[in-house]
Amino acid sequence: MPTLDDERFEAYLKQFRPLVPKPLPAVEPSLRARRAVALGAWAAAAVAILVLGALTLHIRTNRARIAETAENVGNPERLQDSQPLTMRSANALMAKAPSFKAMVDGMLFRSQAVPLPKGKRSAVAVLGKEKIKL
Amino acid sequence: MHRTDRNTAEIESLYRQHGPELLLFAQAVTGERGRAQDAVHQVFLKLIEKGTLRQVVDKKAYLFACVRNAALNEGKQRQRNAPLDPDAAWFIPPDRDYAGEQNLRRALEALPGDQRQVMVLHVWGELTFSQISDLLDLSSNTVASRYRYALAKLRDSMFAKENYCANP
What we know:
- The structure holds 2 protein chains of 2 kinds.
- Chain A has helices at 4-14, 31-74, 87-96, 100-108, 123-129; one strand at 17-18.
- Chain A is mainly α.
- Chain A is rod-shaped, with a radius of gyration of 45 Å.
- The relative contact order of chain A is 0.05.
- By secondary structure, chain B is mostly helical.
- Chain B has 2 domains: 1-87, Rna Polymerase Sigma Factor, Chain: A; 94-168, Arc Repressor Mutant, subunit A (Orthogonal Bundle).
- The longest helix of chain B is centred in the N-terminal third of the chain and has 28 residues, at 3-30.
- The radius of gyration of chain B is 17 Å and the shape is globular.
- The interface between A and B is medium-sized, with 22 and 35 residues.
């Protein structure tokens, strides 16, 4: 047990108050919060890149389609392909050709890309060689 | 209020409440005000970052233990038992008794480190011997014994310099 003198001495010592420390430095956001913010930023950046990519692709595809259509309208020959003339391709020609004449020309002067079987000749070629009296 | 904000406010309140004693104790361990201040700040910033003190039963004793560990860890990287800084004040003296403050500081400096820690924890930290024994991992009898020796030495030292006996 402390003596009375000890208690008085303790009381005297307690009159000396410890110095107040400096205020705490600015508290940064917790690690968890910082991680969430960083993750959110990365996610937003990824989404933005995806959206930009999709938009660019969409615009380029549209432009190519428009350019192709414009070229095809100006030149009906381009509609002709190596396939035989079908109702579908005739309809397409009719829809896209600038005039009826252009459509007919497009159907008549198609390139013969499909080779004929051996020993067979084109009817047009045969008729072209015969002398027909009209 | 958000839970994290509430915890931060609680920890900041503990800093305001116990900061001076903790700083004094850190000074008693490190011997240097700057290092002591760093140790106290480090402890509280970590507590704010972790966000809770709810599971701690004796918060005050826990804070002293944290500050002691921080100060000792920091001291390991430098030199152990560094001499106390003779110029930096430790206390706000009563009635502007700066000579008395210097006298007390020098008397504390003259104490062995373990007795100085017990002295500061009991007188200014207001921890019981039982709390100090848990904190320093010593028996209560050892703590009480160290305190008695420290008190006697401190009084002798201050009597010799200030003639305290005449007018305590």
